[in-house]
Amino acid sequence: MRTRILAVAVLGLCFIAGIVRSEEDAAEALISQLQDVAQMSGSFSQQQFAPDADQPVSVTEGRFGLLRPGYFYWDIQSPDSQLIVADPVYVWHYDRDLETVTRRPADSGTTASPLQVLGGDVGALRENYRVDSSASDVYTLTPRSEEPGFQSLTLKLAAGQLEGMEVIDNLGQRLAISFSDVTRDAGLSVDDFQFTPPEGVDVFFHGQ
User: Fold this and answer.
1) DSSP labels for the chain?
2) Which residue has the higher pLDDT, 181 or 120?
3) Domains of the chain and any CATH numbers
4) Given CA atoms 75, 117, 155, 141 in this order, what sign does their dihedral have?
5) According to the model, what pLDDT value does residue 160 have?
6) Do the beta carbons of residue 66 and residue 72 sit within 8 Å?
7) Are 183 and 40 in contact (CB under 8 A)?
8) Candidate from 26-35, 91-100, 174-183, 190-199 with smallest mean pLDDT
9) Of 14-23, 71-80, 149-158, where does mean pLDDT reach its minimum?
10) Residue 181 φ then ψ, to 5°
């Protein structure tokens, strides 16, 4: 369960001004702004909530990076140590504490995680997601698929900069993420997203 929640985690990118009044306008505004973002990196703090709970069951912190199209990493550094790395072909999950690595296809045949969606083909947003905006700098994506990877994703911005993201998963659990030290000039390259399992760890392949 932890792997699925972590993979869902990660990130929205846009720089939109004003209140969007229709789904079509919201989608077009989001797509327009995402097309201008080539890469992003920063720090995150995420809180996981059980359904209808006010207090988090866990709090984790770390670093993230995104390179469009199709590359991202989500590096949890506290309280445990885990790394998720994705390229257009595979998603790797490395649990450093348990010394295990899991590899899954990036395209598993179901709706992709929010980080993969927003870091990939922005044109697919219009077809695969309903995009709504009820307030300035707040955007909610709802999957149209009958087998979605999550119920909804809400992006929160402040003065045009990414501030937070909230994900409701298929079990009704809520993941609230805040971002800091975010930059769009991170100097990232494809090499930053290469992953080779360390020697001595247990490696599991799913879906090949």
Assistant:
1) -HHHHHHT---------S---SHHHHHHHHHHHHTT--EEEEEEEEEEE-TT-SS-SEEEEEEEEEETTTEEEEEEEESS-EEEEE-SSEEEEEETTTTEEEEEES--SSPPPHHHHHTS-TTHHHHHEEEEEEETTEEEEEE-SSS-S-SEEEEEEETTEEEEEEEE-TTS-EEEEEEEEEES-----GGGG---PPTT-EEEES--
2) 181
3) 2-181 (2.50.20.10)
4) negative
5) 55
6) yes
7) yes
8) 26-35
9) 14-23
10) 55, 35
The two three-digit tokens of residue 81, written as one number: 């140590």
Q: How far is CA 6 from CA 20, 29, 125, 191, in A?
A: 30, 28, 21, 22
Residue at token pair 């770390």: 62
Residues 134 and 140: their CA atoms lie apart, in Å, by 9
Q: Please report which confidence band the pLDDT of residue 43 belongs to, taking 50, 70 and 90 as the band edges.
A: very high
Are 34 and 184 in contact by the 8 Å Cβ rule? The answer is no
Confidence of residue 22 (pLDDT cuts 50, 70, 90): low
DSSP β-ladder status, 161-168 and 152-158: antiparallel
Return d(Cα 184, Cα 59) in angstroms, integer.
25
CA–CA gap between residue 44 and residue 60 (Å, rounded)? 8
The span from the CA of 29 to the CA of 62, in Å, is 29
